[in-house]
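To close the section, here is one more complete example, presented without commentary so you can practise reading it yourself. The ligand is flavin-adenine dinucleotide.
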Amino acid sequence: MKSSVVRLGVNYFDDRDCFDHIASKILFTGCIDEFFDYNLGRLAYRSLRFEHERLEMESYQGNAVVNYNEAAIPFTRIIEHKHFDFGTQAFTLITREYPQPLSPGAEPYYPVNDDRNMRLFSQYKELAASRPDVIFGGRLGLYAYLDMDDAIAGAMELALNELNASL
Ligand SMILES: Cc1cc2nc3c(=O)[nH]c(=O)nc-3n(C[C@H](O)[C@H](O)[C@H](O)COP(=O)(O)OP(=O)(O)OC[C@H]3O[C@@H](n4cnc5c(N)ncnc54)[C@H](O)[C@@H]3O)c2cc1C
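Output:
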């Protein structure tokens, strides 16, 4: 290992040359298409808009998360925050999540796993094979919808494979 410095709040793309040379291997967890400068085209991502509301009632939905999948309802879920930590306030705070296409500056939250994008992703995967110095991981590096348990299991498997390979 060439460096053990931890730097937070930095964007890899702001100084690629520097980050590419501080370690012999890179774990990249950003967007795989951006990593390759969108050479093959842009992958689509879905973003979200969050709408927060304070309600003067003890409980709105009695549960931390309620999903909505009806076409007529514009949001996909409502989070009621106090139920995560058993809050006892007289009021409650909720957040509605509205799906949004990705606009400049927005966060790419989810992949769009349709045929066009999956084909494009497999081409990026082939490109990735030409960079053995880079491990592509996480929801953006693998262009995958991952729940937390998938993300953690995937990270542990990746680490195990890397450690075994270096023995
Ligand atoms: C809105 C939302 C709600 C979710 N709700 C649930 C849920 O209820 N239950 C559940 O199980 N899962 C949920 N998930 C899924 C879960 O949160 C994710 O799958 C998980 O956090 C993915 O972890 P990750 O490490 O792959 O990616 P991330 O958590 O996105 O981590 C990637 C890291 O890479 C860094 N990074 C990216 N690009 C760059 C760059 N250019 N330079 C430097 N650093 C960079 C980011 O800063 C970040 O720290 C939700 C996800 C979202 C988006």
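Once you have examined the tokens, check your reading against these statements. The chain has five helices and seven strands. The chain has two domains: 12-43+112-165, 45-101.
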